[in-house]
Specification:
Two copies of one chain form a homodimer. The first copy, chain A, has 260 residues and is an alpha+beta fold. Chain A is built from seven helices and twelve strands. In chain A, the strands form three sheets. A five-stranded antiparallel β-sheet of chain A has the order 1-2-9-4-7. Chain A binds a DNA duplex (30 and 30 nucleotides) through helix 6.
Amino acid sequence: MIMGIDMFTDSAVIRRPVVITASGRHGSRCDDCEARHSGMCDALSDEDLSLLSRSAQHVAVAAGTLFIEEGDQSPYFYNITHGNVRVFRLLPDGRRHITGFMSGGQFLGLAETGTYAFNAEAMDEVHLCRFNRVALNGLFSEFPALERRLLNISAHELTAAHEQMLLLARKTAAERIASYLVNLALRHEGCVNGMLPAAALALDLPVSRSDLADYLGLTIETVSRSFANLKKTGLIDFHNAHAVTLLKPRQLAAVGNGAA
Amino acid sequence: MIMGIDMFTDSAVIRRPVVITASGRHGSRCDDCEARHSGMCDALSDEDLSLLSRSAQHVAVAAGTLFIEEGDQSPYFYNITHGNVRVFRLLPDGRRHITGFMSGGQFLGLAETGTYAFNAEAMDEVHLCRFNRVALNGLFSEFPALERRLLNISAHELTAAHEQMLLLARKTAAERIASYLVNLALRHEGCVNGMLPAAALALDLPVSRSDLADYLGLTIETVSRSFANLKKTGLIDFHNAHAVTLLKPRQLAAVGNGAA
DNA sequence: CGTGACATTGACTAGTATCAACCAAAGTGG
DNA sequence: CCACTTTGGTTGATACTAGTCAATGTCACG
């Protein structure tokens, strides 16, 4: 190990995935991991988790790194423990679709057989827990709760994917933007029970217009114009591209749901 | 039980799901079920399967029946044993997106918590194996191979959903049609190893233009015109709407993959 | 032979993409 | 510290794909 214990906070960026440790500082420190209580890890007890972590390698990748590339051999299953990841697919002429944005607690590469079917890029500094795929079935047998949880999450991701397919297949540009903003609000702004507040709600948009366009199946220009239109109609407001206020969250949700 | 043993072959169509038996003719006859060697059932031994079947109800629905409706209570998890199902979502003004077409061996309703998030409609006479959701976790513990298999299938369905998202987000009408035709060819026409033949290949399209449009995020007119264009360019041929010949399967695949 | 469901084709429209200019904020280097 | 460049975003003019509306064609069925 060349990198020291401070690697995660080191200011030098690492352009390729770097194994931090297989059993060192982080190998037995799941208990203070950011992702301890989300995603697959939340399914296990502290004891089981520390057993599990012996099968994991801890990896850090610098912002901008493409750490999974479509067509590559896929020996690893990843669990994200820190940072944000852009998952996307490309057509030969460069058209891009962003499948999703993933962050702490979410996993990557469960379905892969042989080669990855997608690309994954670190949007900021990303830390990953990495498992050898061939060992996965053994781990499932050892930790049934893990498998149960993964099934649960996969099933819900499938539902979310179907929702996004509806958006891509049938919603207008404005409806797509509205859907996105409302989902963002529901995820982040402590809107627990799935209810939106009636009052205005400030949001920080975590992605660029370009990422948003490729996520919603639009162009950056159309995204920009749709934002402008929603502002003109009084549903949202913003002074810069990343600080948006939902002025009428529930009306916006109605737009996003395609209310006739 | 009102319906007799011949119910499945009865010419009278049943408009609502009808329980055939919980432990009668079909309850212990998994071994000659159409879906015995596909989907989740293929994961189990004959003995385990016959144990599992005691937790199932067997249900038949007539062609055209909407047997799962978005928003309904979702007490059941379904396994399709016969026939074809159209799974779709609607926007309030009637815009429809067909999530997928499902048939023997595929399952429905795994992710649901409380209410269904989709609609399911029988495209022909459909037979289903139905499980109470609250009993599912118990079944998973009893038959770990079942859970393993469901996780596997779910993960692959997720990959397929991402592929379809790429299509909906970024492909042109002609590319969507080409993709659909090629996938159909790969699934049905004994193209085992995932290889397309270089030679012409006759296909029977199992869906209407309207279903195809709603599956591919297009209108029926655009579907029709795209077929006409592919015919004009010599990639396919057809005399009626459901009997299509792929004249140059590999070139068609290139179109479907968005080759520049 | 008439009817209805499904499909095709044409004319026109609309929504989004494309191309291009411009703008603002954030580096970068002398 | 200030010109210069770079990056990301907005706005406008125009093009084009796919949608809409409407007419016509085809086939199965009573």
